[in-house]
Design goal:
The protein has 241 residues and is of the alpha+beta class. Helix content is 29%, strand content 35%. It contains 6 helices and 12 strands. The protein is globular.
Length: 241
Amino acid sequence: MKYMAMIWAERMPEPEELAVMQREIPRWIEKVNGRGVRLFGRELDLPGTAATVRVRGGETLVTDGPFAETKEFLAGFDLFECADLDEAIEAAAGSPVSWFQAVEIRPFADGLQLGAEAATFGRGEDEAGTPYLLTMWMGGTPAEPLDAEAVMREGEAWRQDVEAQGRQVLGHALQGTESATTVRVRDGKTLLSDGPFIETKEFIAGIDVVRGADRQQAIELAAAHPIARYHAIEVRPFYCG
């Protein structure tokens, strides 16, 4: 089963914490990659680079900044392939990031496919265009009545269209919030809590990673996604060092 391990920063790391992570993360990556548990991971750019996209009455509405108005922010993610949740928790707890921040683990719904573009993205090879994370935020009352099955069909058609443009990297729905587990490691002890990290009525329902020539094109791709008509999509570039 494939799991998304979302790294939630509760604050910016202190210099000494950053030094520990920079020293220890390569060792952890070598270990979990060698076991075939971690497929890849990427760091997101800072929250100030985000835009939140909604489409209302045929008009695209864009606000600067991340969707969630909290001090915490999504800093990146790792993609795990594990036999079960226990193995995913073990992998997340082994990450030096979990010593200082929180890692929310959520399984993808069945059907996530990873192709050559995903492997290229995972290696940080961005010559084909800057990668952007499109985060589908749902919850609360939709802007207009929603037929879930129809939206799912439209979403799949959207992915096929973006793939035909050569801009789709990966994307799929996540399982419900009841499947989430948040992991922290403090003083050597693994602390688990059920449910998503952000305690709001809105939740992340799925993600897509696309390549855009620039921020405006990524926003246009998000605006074409059916979820933008009912809820909101956060657009944020990945860090390209």
